[in-house]
Amino acid sequence: MLTSFFVYGMHWCMNVVIGTDKGERGAVLLRALEPVQGIPVMQERRGTHELHLLCSGPGRLTQALGLTGEFNGAPLDSGPLRIFSRESVPGLHPVEESVIVQTTRVGIAKAKEQPYRFYLKESCISKR
């Protein structure tokens, strides 16, 4: 399920929430993605042609994807935004562990030393 929240009175942010049982929930903040489709629409929504500025940050990401509070509670397997497992998409190859970077969190004050930030070495997002 997708959950939305408004921060700083100006940006929508989105979490992916898993689990439905009490005590079994978990959530991940969608912080960034490297755009590969729909780039012209994202550029128009964001008002920039700079690829690395389209989706590099939670507010930029939701603006580029057109996500607002209307998406709160939307399912991720059949809603307007879908997240698929790598196994469910024919032709995708597994990502080698050697290209996955794990580092500390950014943009927060509490528990920033925790290694909960992941990205791909060669991503346009990782260079920022």
What does this structure look like?
With 128 residues, this protein is α+β, with helices and mostly antiparallel strands. The protein has one domain (2-93): Methylpurine-DNA glycosylase (MPG) (3-methyladenine DNA Glycosylase, Chain A, Roll). The protein contains 2 helices and 5 strands. α1 packs across α2.
CATH topology, which one?
Answer: 3-methyladenine DNA Glycosylase, Chain A
Shape: globular
As laid out across the biggest beta sheet, the strand order is 1-2-3
* Radius of gyration of CA atoms, rounded to a whole number: 15 Å
Tally of contiguous helical segments: 2
Q: Into how many domains do the coordinates divide?
A: 1
Distance from N terminus to C terminus (CA atoms, Å) equals 29 Å
| Structural class computed from helices and strand pairing | alpha+beta
Question: Which structural traits does this protein have?
Answer:
128 residues; 3-methyladenine DNA Glycosylase, Chain A; 12% helix; two-stranded antiparallel sheet; three-stranded antiparallel beta sheet; alpha+beta
Fold topology:
Elements: E1 2-7, E2 11-18, E3 26-29, H1 39-46, H2 58-65, E4 100-103, E5 117-120
Antiparallel strand pairs: 1-2, 2-3, 4-5
Helix pairs in contact: 1-2
Summarize the structure.
This protein is of the alpha+beta class. It has two helices and five strands.
